[in-house]
Amino acid sequence: MDLIDWLDDHSEGWFWYVKRLSGNDTLANGSHQAGPYIPRAVFFRLFPSLKTHTHDNAKAWFDLTIASHPDARQVRVIWYNNKWRGRTRDEVRVTNLGGAQSALLDPESTGALAVFAFRQSEGSDTDHCCVWVCRDQVEADIAERMVGPVEPGHWAMFPPDGDLLSLLATPARTDCRLAHHALPPKWLKRFPTGAEIMREVISLRPDSELAVDKRLMRRLDCEFELFQSLEEAVELPRVRKGFTAIADFLVAAQTVLQRRRARAGRALELHMREILKEEGFVEGRDFTWQPKKAEGNPDFVFPNEDLYLDDKHPREQFRMLAAKTTIRDRWRQVTQECPDLPKRHLLTLQEGVSEKQFDLITKERICLVVPDRQISKYANSIRPHLMTVESFMADLRTLSPPGP
User: Cα(153)–Cα(69) distance, rounded to whole angstroms?
Assistant: First the structure.
C-alpha cells in the first residue's frame, strides 16, 4: 500500500503517535525492554480504564496491523508501574510483537520513523492500532511533512483533523519554556533565526562547567523547549482568531511545519560550532564551519579549509565532521564528503543502529560520534567503537599542525 494513501485512510477517527524507533524499542541493543515505548500521557488517552494504578503492571490487549510490512497480531500494552510501590520502573511499552520478524522489533528498523494510528474510541479503550514503519527517507519525509520533524528521543501526537491547535499543543512548562512576557519582544514581531535562538539557549544554559557531551544535550533539550514556547506565543493568537478560507489555514500550517524542519536541520550543527569555540578551538584557524570548497560540503573541516585544500599536506593531519540528527539513511551522504581522508566522523543523536548497518558505516571509513547519554541505546558490541563528543575533541587536540 502507498504511504500517502495509508495516511489518508487513517486520518478521520484515528489518533497518531509518531516516534523514531530507538535501540531500546527494537532488538538492536539486546535490551530486555524491547518493544516500542509509549509516553504515559498517550497511554492514558488511549486506555482511560487503566489510569489508576491499583495493581502492578496494568495491561490491555488490542489488535495491531503493520501495513508497511504485512503483519497482524494481537499485542499487549503494559504499564510497568512498580515505581508507585517503592521500586524504580514507570514506563509503558507494547509487547508480544513476535520477535525480530516484526518490523517494530527488527534491528534494521532502528532509527526508522514509525506512525502508530490508534482508532479513536470515545470514553473507552482503543481496540485497534495500524502502524507504518517508514522504509526509507522518502517515506519519513512524507510523514514529517504532515506532523513536523520528529527527533530522536522526542515524539509527536497528531490528530490530522484540520485542528491546528492540536499541532501547537505543548507539554507543561520547564525553565526553558518561557512565558509570553519573558520572550524577547522583537521575537514576537519577527521569528528569530537559529543563531538567535541558540544565543538565548546559552544564556539559559551556560553550563560551562559541564562536560561537553552533557552540555550539548542539555542545550539541545533546552532549545526544543524554548522553540515550542516561542511557537506557542507567536502562532496560537493567530490560530485562535480562526481562518476565513482553507487556503489561509494551509499556509499557516505549512509555515509552522517548515519552520520546525529548518530548526531541526540546523540545531545540532550550530550548537557543536559554539561548543568548539567554548573549548578553545578558534574558527578559521582550528576549524572551518561550512567550508565552501571541500568536496561533498562537510559541516566542519579541521584544522581549516585553506590548509585542507593544499594537497601537499598529508591527509592524516586533517579531520572532517558531519552533523546529522538521524542517520538511518542519511549516513550515506557522508561517503561523498572529504573522500580523500582516511577516516570521516559523523555526529548523530540517533538512538542506536543495527550491527549490520554499523558494519556498512565502518566499511566506509566513517566513525560515529555519539553524545555519551545516547551510547546505552547501542548494542554492547558497537559501544567500544563509538566516540563521544569529548573523545572526538581530544583526538582533534592530538593533531600535529600541518607542516609548511
Answer: 24
Q: Global pTM?
A: 0.88
Helices (H), 112-245: 137-147, 164-167, 185-189, 194-204, 212-241
List b or e across 62-97, with b for residues whose CB sees 16 or more CB atoms inside 10 angstroms. Answer: bebebbbeebeeebebbbbbeeeeeeeeebbbbebb
> What is the β-pairing status of strands 71-80 and 319-324?
unpaired
Torsion sign across C-alpha atoms 183, 186, 192, 198? negative
Decide if pLDDT at 170 tops 70: no
In whole angstroms, give the CA distance from residue 256 to residue 48: 31
319 three-state secondary structure: strand
HSE on the CB side for 298, CA within 13 Å?
Answer: 28
Catalytic residues: 308
Find out whether 26 and 130 touch, Cβ atoms under 8 Å. no
Helices (H), 279-304: none
Q: How far is CA 193 from the centre of its chain?
A: 20
Cβ neighbours of residue 352 under 8 Å, at least 6 residues apart?
Answer: 22, 23, 24, 26, 28, 29, 110, 111, 377, 378, 379
For 117, counting Cβ atoms within 10 Å of its Cβ (0-12 exposed, 13-18 middle, 19+ buried), the class is buried
Q: Can you read off the three cell numbers belonging to residue 265?
A: 536541520
Which grid coordinates are listed for 340?
580523500
Among 16-20, 91-95, 233-237, 326-330, the range scoring the smallest mean pLDDT is 233-237
Question: Do 22 and 37 meet the contact criterion of CB atoms below 8 Å apart?
Answer: yes
Interhelix angle for 137-147 vs 246-278, to 10°?
110
Q: How far apart are CA 195 and CA 263, in angstroms?
A: 10
In order of start, what are the domains of the chain with their CATH numbers?
3-159 (2.40.330.10), 180-278 (3.40.91.80), 288-398 (3.40.91.80)
pLDDT digits (tens, 9 = 90+) for 41-96: 889 889 988 887 667 788 999 999 999 998 999 999 999 887 776 677 789 999 99
- In sequence order, the β-bridge partners of residue 91 are 80
DSSP H helical ranges for 66-156: 137-147
Asked if residue 81 lies in contact with residue 53, where contact means CB atoms within 8 angstroms, the answer is yes
